[in-house]
Write a structure and sequence with these properties.
Helices cover 25% and strands 36% of the residues. It is α+β, with helices and mostly antiparallel strands. It has a three-stranded antiparallel beta sheet. It has a two-stranded antiparallel ribbon with strand order 1-2. The chain has a two-stranded antiparallel sheet with strand order 6-7. A hairpin with a 5-residue loop joins strand 4 and strand 5.
């Protein structure tokens, strides 16, 4: 959702850097960042649950979740308006729009 495209194809990313954080072998969070110091962090369900149980922690910064909600809303509306079926990735982000009788198997 952070990729940007122009008429000529891929143009760049809002957050070109990404750091994945693993705790006990499981993906805990992914921090997206840019050279201006802006960040957006995705938190796993385990991370959210664990942090919610810590009363002294500041609330989770949810820029990623807000961006994801906005992204999905636009993409899902466009897909459904053209008769497609929405497919999401493992992070809950819009992945693609599938159409009845259409196969993306390349064959």
């Amino acid at each position: 959702m952070y990729r940007q495209y122009s008429e000529n194809g891929f143009a760049g990313c809002t957050y070109p850097g990404r750091i994945s954080v693993y705790i006990n072998g499981g993906l805990w969070s992914q921090v997206y960042w840019n050279m201006l110091g802006s960040t957006s962090t995705w938190y796993s369900d385990a991370a959210r649950t664990s942090m919610a149980q810590q009363p002294n922690l500041l609330p989770i910064e949810d820029a990623f979740l807000k961006d994801l909600t906005r992204w999905n809303s636009g993409q899902v509306a466009q897909c459904r308006s053209t008769g497609g079926t929405v497919a999401f990735d493992t992070f809950g982000a819009f992945q693609r729009c599938a159409y009845l009788g259409w196969s993306d198997s390349g064959g």
